[in-house]
Design a protein that fits this description.
This protein is of the alpha/beta class and 339 residues long. Helix content is 45%, strand content 14%. It folds into three domains: 47 residues, Orthogonal Bundle (434 Repressor (Amino-terminal Domain)); 132 residues, Response regulator (Rossmann fold, 3-Layer(aba) Sandwich); 130 residues, 3-Layer(aba) Sandwich (Rossmann fold), CATH 3.40.50.
Protein backbone atom coordinates (compact mmCIF):
# COMPACT_ATOMS: atom_id res chain seq x y z
CA UNK A 1 0.00 0.00 0.00
CA UNK A 2 1.30 3.45 -0.95
CA UNK A 3 1.95 5.71 2.04
CA UNK A 4 2.54 9.43 2.57
CA UNK A 5 6.21 8.65 3.17
CA UNK A 6 6.48 6.98 -0.27
CA UNK A 7 5.18 10.18 -1.89
CA UNK A 8 7.50 12.31 0.25
CA UNK A 9 10.52 10.23 -0.80
CA UNK A 10 9.60 10.55 -4.49
CA UNK A 11 9.05 14.33 -4.34
CA UNK A 12 11.81 15.29 -1.94
CA UNK A 13 9.56 16.93 0.64
CA UNK A 14 8.51 16.03 4.15
CA UNK A 15 5.68 13.67 5.01
CA UNK A 16 3.90 16.57 6.76
CA UNK A 17 4.03 18.66 3.56
CA UNK A 18 2.49 15.78 1.59
CA UNK A 19 -0.27 15.49 4.20
CA UNK A 20 -1.05 19.21 4.00
CA UNK A 21 -1.32 19.13 0.20
CA UNK A 22 -3.45 15.99 -0.01
CA UNK A 23 -5.80 17.47 2.59
CA UNK A 24 -6.20 20.68 0.58
CA UNK A 25 -4.26 22.89 3.00
CA UNK A 26 -1.48 24.05 0.66
CA UNK A 27 -2.65 27.69 0.60
CA UNK A 28 -3.04 27.89 4.37
CA UNK A 29 0.41 26.38 4.89
CA UNK A 30 1.98 28.58 2.17
CA UNK A 31 3.11 25.66 0.01
CA UNK A 32 3.96 26.76 -3.53
CA UNK A 33 1.65 25.78 -6.37
CA UNK A 34 4.50 24.00 -8.13
CA UNK A 35 5.25 21.81 -5.11
CA UNK A 36 1.57 21.07 -4.56
CA UNK A 37 1.09 20.04 -8.20
CA UNK A 38 4.18 17.80 -8.06
CA UNK A 39 2.88 16.06 -4.93
CA UNK A 40 -0.59 15.53 -6.39
CA UNK A 41 0.79 14.19 -9.69
CA UNK A 42 3.12 11.80 -7.84
CA UNK A 43 0.29 10.58 -5.62
CA UNK A 44 -1.84 9.94 -8.71
CA UNK A 45 0.93 8.06 -10.52
CA UNK A 46 1.63 5.89 -7.48
CA UNK A 47 -2.08 5.10 -7.08
CA UNK A 48 -2.41 6.66 -3.66
CA UNK A 49 -5.96 6.91 -2.31
CA UNK A 50 -7.05 8.89 0.74
CA UNK A 51 -8.58 6.90 3.58
CA UNK A 52 -11.49 9.17 4.50
CA UNK A 53 -12.32 7.15 7.59
CA UNK A 54 -8.77 7.39 8.93
CA UNK A 55 -8.67 11.11 8.18
CA UNK A 56 -11.95 11.64 10.02
CA UNK A 57 -10.57 9.79 13.02
CA UNK A 58 -7.42 11.95 13.09
CA UNK A 59 -9.00 15.34 12.34
CA UNK A 60 -12.32 14.83 14.16
CA UNK A 61 -14.39 15.43 11.01
CA UNK A 62 -15.08 13.83 7.65
CA UNK A 63 -15.06 15.82 4.42
CA UNK A 64 -18.82 15.53 4.33
CA UNK A 65 -21.44 18.28 4.30
CA UNK A 66 -24.86 17.32 5.61
CA UNK A 67 -28.04 18.49 3.86
CA UNK A 68 -31.08 18.47 6.14
CA UNK A 69 -34.52 18.78 4.55
CA UNK A 70 -38.01 17.65 5.47
CA UNK A 71 -39.09 17.51 1.81
CA UNK A 72 -36.03 16.61 -0.32
CA UNK A 73 -38.34 15.47 -3.15
CA UNK A 74 -39.55 19.03 -3.84
CA UNK A 75 -38.01 20.32 -7.06
CA UNK A 76 -36.54 23.51 -5.61
CA UNK A 77 -35.03 21.60 -2.65
CA UNK A 78 -33.53 18.98 -4.97
CA UNK A 79 -32.14 21.71 -7.26
CA UNK A 80 -30.25 23.38 -4.41
CA UNK A 81 -29.04 20.00 -3.14
CA UNK A 82 -27.77 19.07 -6.61
CA UNK A 83 -25.88 22.35 -6.84
CA UNK A 84 -24.30 21.79 -3.42
CA UNK A 85 -23.13 18.36 -4.56
CA UNK A 86 -21.79 19.77 -7.82
CA UNK A 87 -19.75 22.50 -6.15
CA UNK A 88 -18.66 20.46 -3.12
CA UNK A 89 -17.15 17.60 -5.13
CA UNK A 90 -14.26 19.58 -6.73
CA UNK A 91 -13.36 20.80 -3.23
CA UNK A 92 -13.07 17.22 -2.04
CA UNK A 93 -16.35 17.14 -0.09
CA UNK A 94 -19.23 14.69 -0.31
CA UNK A 95 -22.84 15.55 0.56
CA UNK A 96 -24.98 13.38 2.81
CA UNK A 97 -28.76 13.84 2.78
CA UNK A 98 -30.32 13.80 6.25
CA UNK A 99 -34.09 13.51 6.63
CA UNK A 100 -36.19 14.91 9.45
CA UNK A 101 -39.87 15.19 10.26
CA UNK A 102 -42.10 16.49 13.06
CA UNK A 103 -40.83 13.72 15.35
CA UNK A 104 -37.17 14.71 14.95
CA UNK A 105 -35.84 16.86 17.80
CA UNK A 106 -33.02 19.38 17.72
CA UNK A 107 -31.07 17.03 20.00
CA UNK A 108 -31.45 14.26 17.39
CA UNK A 109 -30.03 16.52 14.68
CA UNK A 110 -27.13 17.74 16.82
CA UNK A 111 -26.23 14.19 17.83
CA UNK A 112 -26.38 13.00 14.21
CA UNK A 113 -24.13 15.80 12.96
CA UNK A 114 -21.54 15.03 15.64
CA UNK A 115 -21.79 11.27 15.17
CA UNK A 116 -21.33 11.58 11.40
CA UNK A 117 -18.34 13.92 11.97
CA UNK A 118 -19.81 16.43 9.52
CA UNK A 119 -17.69 19.32 8.28
CA UNK A 120 -20.82 21.44 7.90
CA UNK A 121 -24.61 21.26 7.88
CA UNK A 122 -27.03 22.93 5.46
CA UNK A 123 -30.59 23.21 6.77
CA UNK A 124 -33.12 24.01 4.06
CA UNK A 125 -35.63 25.73 6.30
CA UNK A 126 -36.46 25.62 10.00
CA UNK A 127 -38.03 27.73 12.74
CA UNK A 128 -35.87 30.37 14.41
CA UNK A 129 -35.82 28.77 17.87
CA UNK A 130 -34.89 25.32 16.59
CA UNK A 131 -32.30 26.76 14.21
CA UNK A 132 -30.71 28.81 17.01
CA UNK A 133 -30.35 25.78 19.26
CA UNK A 134 -28.77 23.66 16.53
CA UNK A 135 -26.51 26.46 15.25
CA UNK A 136 -25.25 27.41 18.73
CA UNK A 137 -24.51 23.84 19.77
CA UNK A 138 -22.77 22.90 16.52
CA UNK A 139 -20.80 26.16 16.54
CA UNK A 140 -19.28 24.94 19.81
CA UNK A 141 -18.28 21.77 17.97
CA UNK A 142 -16.82 23.88 15.11
CA UNK A 143 -19.42 22.55 12.67
CA UNK A 144 -20.73 25.47 10.55
CA UNK A 145 -24.49 25.64 10.01
CA UNK A 146 -26.00 27.25 6.91
CA UNK A 147 -29.58 27.87 5.87
CA UNK A 148 -31.61 29.02 2.85
CA UNK A 149 -34.28 30.51 5.12
CA UNK A 150 -34.59 34.20 4.20
CA UNK A 151 -35.91 35.49 7.50
CA UNK A 152 -33.96 36.40 10.62
CA UNK A 153 -31.38 33.76 11.57
CA UNK A 154 -29.22 33.23 14.67
CA UNK A 155 -25.85 34.92 15.07
CA UNK A 156 -23.17 32.75 13.50
CA UNK A 157 -25.49 30.95 11.10
CA UNK A 158 -24.53 31.21 7.42
CA UNK A 159 -27.42 32.39 5.25
CA UNK A 160 -27.87 32.37 1.46
CA UNK A 161 -31.26 33.09 -0.11
CA UNK A 162 -33.04 34.48 -3.17
CA UNK A 163 -33.76 38.20 -3.43
CA UNK A 164 -37.53 37.78 -3.18
CA UNK A 165 -38.18 41.49 -2.66
CA UNK A 166 -36.67 42.29 -6.06
CA UNK A 167 -38.55 39.36 -7.54
CA UNK A 168 -41.87 40.84 -6.42
CA UNK A 169 -40.87 44.25 -7.80
CA UNK A 170 -39.87 42.73 -11.14
CA UNK A 171 -43.29 41.10 -11.57
CA UNK A 172 -45.11 44.34 -10.79
CA UNK A 173 -42.88 46.35 -13.12
CA UNK A 174 -43.37 43.84 -15.94
CA UNK A 175 -47.17 43.68 -15.66
CA UNK A 176 -47.48 47.46 -15.40
CA UNK A 177 -45.32 47.81 -18.53
CA UNK A 178 -47.91 45.70 -20.36
CA UNK A 179 -50.64 48.10 -19.31
CA UNK A 180 -52.10 46.11 -16.42
CA UNK A 181 -53.47 48.10 -13.49
CA UNK A 182 -55.99 45.66 -12.00
CA UNK A 183 -53.74 42.87 -10.75
CA UNK A 184 -54.83 40.02 -8.47
CA UNK A 185 -52.46 38.35 -6.02
CA UNK A 186 -52.45 34.72 -4.85
CA UNK A 187 -49.85 34.04 -2.18
CA UNK A 188 -48.47 31.29 0.03
CA UNK A 189 -48.37 31.40 3.83
CA UNK A 190 -48.45 35.15 4.55
CA UNK A 191 -46.21 34.72 7.61
CA UNK A 192 -43.32 33.12 5.74
CA UNK A 193 -40.48 35.61 5.07
CA UNK A 194 -40.23 34.79 1.35
CA UNK A 195 -43.97 35.47 0.93
CA UNK A 196 -43.71 38.71 2.91
CA UNK A 197 -40.81 39.94 0.76
CA UNK A 198 -42.37 39.00 -2.58
CA UNK A 199 -45.58 40.76 -1.62
CA UNK A 200 -43.77 43.83 -0.28
CA UNK A 201 -41.69 44.21 -3.43
CA UNK A 202 -44.83 43.86 -5.54
CA UNK A 203 -46.81 46.41 -3.50
CA UNK A 204 -43.93 48.89 -3.18
CA UNK A 205 -43.57 49.14 -6.95
CA UNK A 206 -47.31 49.66 -7.45
CA UNK A 207 -47.27 52.33 -4.74
CA UNK A 208 -44.37 54.15 -6.39
CA UNK A 209 -46.33 54.24 -9.64
CA UNK A 210 -49.41 55.44 -7.74
CA UNK A 211 -51.43 52.44 -8.85
CA UNK A 212 -54.38 51.78 -6.57
CA UNK A 213 -54.48 48.33 -4.97
CA UNK A 214 -57.82 46.53 -4.54
CA UNK A 215 -57.79 44.62 -1.25
CA UNK A 216 -60.39 42.13 -2.45
CA UNK A 217 -57.97 41.04 -5.20
CA UNK A 218 -55.57 39.54 -2.61
CA UNK A 219 -55.78 35.91 -1.50
CA UNK A 220 -53.45 33.83 0.70
CA UNK A 221 -55.27 30.53 1.25
CA UNK A 222 -53.72 27.72 -0.79
CA UNK A 223 -56.49 25.09 -0.70
CA UNK A 224 -57.75 24.41 -4.23
CA UNK A 225 -61.41 25.04 -3.41
CA UNK A 226 -60.58 28.37 -1.71
CA UNK A 227 -58.53 29.47 -4.73
CA UNK A 228 -61.34 28.41 -7.07
CA UNK A 229 -63.93 30.38 -5.08
CA UNK A 230 -61.67 33.44 -5.01
CA UNK A 231 -61.01 33.38 -8.76
CA UNK A 232 -64.63 32.80 -9.69
CA UNK A 233 -65.77 35.62 -7.42
CA UNK A 234 -63.39 38.30 -8.66
CA UNK A 235 -63.65 37.28 -12.33
CA UNK A 236 -67.43 37.87 -12.18
CA UNK A 237 -66.88 41.52 -11.20
CA UNK A 238 -67.46 44.28 -13.72
CA UNK A 239 -64.01 45.68 -12.87
CA UNK A 240 -62.28 42.31 -12.84
CA UNK A 241 -58.49 41.81 -12.77
CA UNK A 242 -56.59 41.55 -16.03
CA UNK A 243 -53.58 39.78 -14.51
CA UNK A 244 -52.61 37.46 -11.64
CA UNK A 245 -49.34 37.36 -9.72
CA UNK A 246 -48.98 33.99 -7.95
CA UNK A 247 -46.09 33.63 -5.53
CA UNK A 248 -45.31 30.06 -6.61
CA UNK A 249 -45.51 28.23 -9.92
CA UNK A 250 -47.85 25.63 -8.42
CA UNK A 251 -50.30 28.34 -7.43
CA UNK A 252 -49.98 29.85 -10.91
CA UNK A 253 -50.66 26.49 -12.56
CA UNK A 254 -53.66 26.05 -10.27
CA UNK A 255 -54.97 29.49 -11.26
CA UNK A 256 -54.32 28.79 -14.95
CA UNK A 257 -56.32 25.55 -14.80
CA UNK A 258 -59.22 27.19 -12.96
CA UNK A 259 -59.37 30.19 -15.32
CA UNK A 260 -59.29 28.01 -18.42
CA UNK A 261 -61.95 25.77 -16.90
CA UNK A 262 -64.16 28.84 -16.51
CA UNK A 263 -63.76 29.81 -20.16
CA UNK A 264 -61.04 32.47 -19.86
CA UNK A 265 -58.24 32.53 -22.43
CA UNK A 266 -54.71 33.01 -21.16
CA UNK A 267 -53.18 35.47 -21.99
CA UNK A 268 -55.86 36.95 -24.31
CA UNK A 269 -58.34 37.56 -21.47
CA UNK A 270 -56.04 37.47 -18.44
CA UNK A 271 -52.28 37.16 -17.80
CA UNK A 272 -50.61 34.93 -15.20
CA UNK A 273 -47.12 35.15 -13.67
CA UNK A 274 -45.69 32.55 -11.29
CA UNK A 275 -42.55 32.27 -9.18
CA UNK A 276 -39.73 29.66 -9.00
CA UNK A 277 -39.29 28.55 -12.64
CA UNK A 278 -40.23 24.93 -11.98
CA UNK A 279 -40.03 22.44 -14.84
CA UNK A 280 -43.82 21.97 -14.87
CA UNK A 281 -44.27 25.61 -15.85
CA UNK A 282 -42.44 25.07 -19.13
CA UNK A 283 -44.95 22.43 -20.21
CA UNK A 284 -48.18 24.22 -19.36
CA UNK A 285 -50.35 25.48 -22.17
CA UNK A 286 -49.56 28.29 -22.42
CA UNK A 287 -46.06 28.04 -20.93
CA UNK A 288 -45.77 29.96 -17.68
CA UNK A 289 -44.12 33.35 -17.26
CA UNK A 290 -42.24 33.17 -13.97
CA UNK A 291 -39.41 34.42 -11.77
CA UNK A 292 -36.37 32.14 -11.84
CA UNK A 293 -34.37 31.59 -8.68
CA UNK A 294 -30.68 30.85 -9.21
CA UNK A 295 -30.41 27.53 -7.38
CA UNK A 296 -26.98 26.81 -8.83
CA UNK A 297 -25.48 30.00 -7.42
CA UNK A 298 -27.21 29.48 -4.06
CA UNK A 299 -25.64 26.03 -3.78
CA UNK A 300 -22.21 27.31 -4.80
CA UNK A 301 -22.26 30.17 -2.29
CA UNK A 302 -23.33 27.84 0.51
CA UNK A 303 -20.42 25.48 -0.16
CA UNK A 304 -17.85 28.30 -0.40
CA UNK A 305 -19.07 29.95 2.80
CA UNK A 306 -18.95 26.68 4.73
CA UNK A 307 -15.40 25.96 3.53
CA UNK A 308 -14.33 29.55 4.31
CA UNK A 309 -15.77 29.19 7.80
CA UNK A 310 -13.81 25.97 8.32
CA UNK A 311 -10.58 27.63 7.21
CA UNK A 312 -11.08 30.78 9.25
CA UNK A 313 -12.33 29.01 12.35
CA UNK A 314 -14.48 32.03 13.24
CA UNK A 315 -17.52 33.95 12.04
CA UNK A 316 -16.79 35.83 8.76
CA UNK A 317 -18.19 39.35 8.51
CA UNK A 318 -20.13 38.44 5.36
CA UNK A 319 -22.16 35.50 6.64
CA UNK A 320 -25.34 36.52 4.77
CA UNK A 321 -25.74 36.69 1.01
CA UNK A 322 -28.76 37.11 -1.22
CA UNK A 323 -28.85 35.93 -4.82
CA UNK A 324 -30.53 37.80 -7.66
CA UNK A 325 -33.57 36.47 -9.51
CA UNK A 326 -34.56 36.70 -13.19
CA UNK A 327 -37.94 37.26 -14.83
CA UNK A 328 -38.60 34.58 -17.49
CA UNK A 329 -41.21 35.74 -20.01
CA UNK A 330 -43.20 32.97 -21.70
CA UNK A 331 -46.68 32.68 -23.21
CA UNK A 332 -48.95 33.06 -20.15
CA UNK A 333 -48.63 36.86 -20.06
CA UNK A 334 -49.40 39.59 -22.53
CA UNK A 335 -50.76 43.12 -22.98
CA UNK A 336 -53.83 44.22 -21.04
CA UNK A 337 -56.97 43.06 -22.91
CA UNK A 338 -59.50 45.52 -24.25
CA UNK A 339 -62.55 44.82 -22.11
Amino acid sequence: MITLQDIADKTGVTKVTVSYVLNGLEKEKHISQGTACRIKETALKLGYTIDDFARAMSTGRAKVIGFLAASPHFEFVASVMTSIMKHAAPKGYMVKVLYYDEMTTEENIIALAVKQRLSGLVIYSMGMNELRKISDRLFEKKIPVATLFNGKVPEGCIQVYSDDYEGGRAVAEYLVSLGHRKIAYIGNNPLMPYSVKRKKGFLDYLSEKEIQVTDSFFHTKTEREKIKEFIQRIMELKERPTAFFCTSDWLAIEALTILQGNGFRVPDDVSIVGYANLEAGKFCHPALTTVAENYSMIGEKLVLKIIDRLKLGSIPSEKTDNVGVTLIVRESSGPVPKL
